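Researcher: I need the complex structure. Ligand is dihydroflavine-adenine dinucleotide. Inputs:
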Amino acid sequence: MLFRETMLRVAGLPAVEQFVIGGPSARGLVRRFVAGETLSEALGAVRELNADGASATLNLLGEDVSDLAGADRARDEYIRQLAAIAAARLDANISVKLTQLGLTFDRSVAQKNLEAVVVRAAEQDCFVRIDMESSTYTQVTLDLFYALFERYQNVGVVIQAYLHRGSSDVEELIRRQARVRLVKGAYREPATVAMQRKQDVDRSFARLMERLVEHGRFPALATHDSRLIQYAIGQSHARGIGRERFEFQMLYGIRRDLQADVRRRGFGLRVYVPYGAEWYPYFSRRLAERPANLLFLLSSVLHEARDQP
Ligand code: FDA
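Model: Output:
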């Protein structure tokens, strides 16, 4: 967790961001995690996943949008995604971030944009997942979600197991029978808000997963942690819970071997497919999750430096 904390801090420095975005070294690694810059490239990735038996959730990269025009553009792109999913009859839904739809500067803008997307999705029986961002936004995200969920059922939210509040939020979501994606959590958070030790986060994920699989409504267990995946499968067998009652979710380009394994064993798998030009914050969270990714990036930088005339 110390590596992750340090990486997120360093990646957040403007000079580092400029260096990574400006140089060619990161491109190869970015393409491993990001399906492309355009919707049509992302749709190509979704088609391939569907052909392999996996569902997808499309995400337009971008967060902390600071102006109305930007938030409206993101909303329109999500509506284009929905149209494309319907036209091509893809097995896909969409994942949105509220700070991309205006939450950073005006809650009512985010609410209006989110509702426009959810209404459009409902017309074609498609589902919208609201990603969870840093803890500054947890309560407002849940508030906006609860308000919308009273009127539309095709929307769900994400709970981060590292947050101390995770357990009470999960109980409330179970009570409302709302759909939850459970994740460990990807942001840099203080100890007052989130668990700092990996084993505590893993334990929390396992506990929340048990609750959701047994009592939740079609939970999504989003992890590449093979031990937790095995644990979920064991628990579901032990409690007689059918595989149609939950799904696993993983990120595009991560642990493809595990993705294939989960599918081969007959469990539902949905892959999160991000695309777009605003890849840096997403990419830096993926780097922070695994030292090997950083080493790979550093070795590309060193190779380039050596190859300079
Ligand atoms: P963990 O980090 O312990 O990794 C387990 C194993 O997975 C590692 O040993 C390694 O093999 C592999 N692995 C994990 N990350 C890797 C990487 N970057 N590169 C290569 N291998 C890697 N978070 C959030 O805060 N809000 C959200 O809305 C979402 N949404 C979301 C959707 C989906 C579908 C997934 C899978 C994840 C998220 N996340 C998220 C991210 C989540 O919080 C978490 O940061 C990552 O999933 C990594 O944690 P793991 O559960 O995979 O475990």
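Model: Summary of the prediction. Residues 193 and 245 are 31 Å apart (CA to CA).
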